[in-house]
Specification:
This protein has helices at about 1-40, 50-60, 75-90, 90-105, 105-110, 115-145, 155-180, 185-200, 215-220, 225-235, 250, 255-280. With about 280 residues, it is mainly alpha-helical. The radius of gyration is 21 Å and the shape is elongated.
Length: about 280
């Protein structure tokens, strides 16, 4: 009788212990990833130098030739799209890091330790989320320098950055899955051009979808990058031509971003962990 009464409590205690161990493993491995960034700061180029180059190029080279339906400043229009692009472009870096760890034998050393199998990928994505925070700050800083302004309150600003970081974090799990499937860091690097770059450009990140060919407009309007750009522009009070588009993601961009993010987390996070366990135990 006594053991029957105590067993549920013991089960809860064991579960709490496993969760605490998982959190500890994630924290230790996250610090490892951040320590690598301190040793190799050039790895932050994709969230620092690259966004600056894209903002300046589109503002001063292409911006004068791009009209905004309904009027408005292209400088202010651009930043909402650049915020999403800068965060999504960290996914190829996640893939490269995962492939590198798998190919250098590091995972074999992790396998010999009493640690959670899910902690390795979780720590990788948490470290990338922290670098995404840096990228968001860089985009906002260069935006302010070129004339971007926010016309809403602090709550909307926080909501915009929270949505962008949620989307960026979900996207890192896509990169983690690619890292499990691809066989070399070079192939993982090329995935950024083959998969992620077209996803960014076939959207309203840089140009309004109204100027695209008719057959391409639905693709761009249902692109999650377009929803993120529209949500950020709406929350920042910037020009948002997507508000005139009747597609559901453009009429409800915040809900669309949350839905896309949750869908990516539900699908790709468990899949990445399953692939990792298969390779680590194989």
């Amino acid at each position: 009788m006594t053991s029957a009464v105590l067993s549920p409590g013991r089960g809860v205690t064991r579960q709490a212990g496993r969760f605490a161990g998982f959190v500890t493993d994630v924290w230790v491995l996250t610090k490892r990833s951040l320590a690598r960034i301190r040793r190799e700061p050039e790895t932050l180029a994709e969230v620092t130098i690259q966004p600056i180059l894209f903002v300046l190029m589109f503002t001063y080279v292409f911006g004068g030739a791009i009209g905004i339906p309904g009027g408005g400043s292209y400088h202010e229009y651009l930043i909402g799209g650049m915020l999403g692009m800068g965060l999504a472009q960290t996914a190829p870096g996640t893939a490269v890091a995962v492939v590198t760890d798998m190919s250098t034998g590091l995972i074999d050393r992790f396998r010999s330790l009493p640690m959670s199998r899910a902690a390795v990928l979780s720590a990788r994505t948490v470290a990338d989320l922290l670098t995404q925070v840096i990228g968001a700050i860089v985009v906002a800083g260069v935006g302010l320098a070129i004339g971007w302004r926010v016309h809403t309150g602090p709550g909307d600003i926080i909501a915009a950055f929270a949505l962008a970081l949620l989307f960026g974090y979900a996207f890192t799990w896509v990169g983690a899955c690619l890292g499990m499937v691809l066989r070399s860091p070079e192939a993982a690097q090329q995935s950024g051009f083959v998969i992620f770059l077209p996803l960014t450009f076939i959207s309203s990140a840089f140009v309004p979808t109204q100027g695209m060919p008719g057959w391409l407009q639905p693709v761009a309007e249902w692109n999650p990058m377009s929803a993120l750009a529209a949500a950020c522009r709406h929350l920042f009070g910037n020009p948002n031509p997507a508000a005139a588009v009747h597609a559901w993601p453009m009429q409800h961009p915040q809900l669309a971003v949350i839905a896309w993010s949750v869908a990516m987390l539900v699908v790709f996070a468990p899949l990445a962990v399953r692939l990792y366990r298969r390779k680590a135990l194989g």
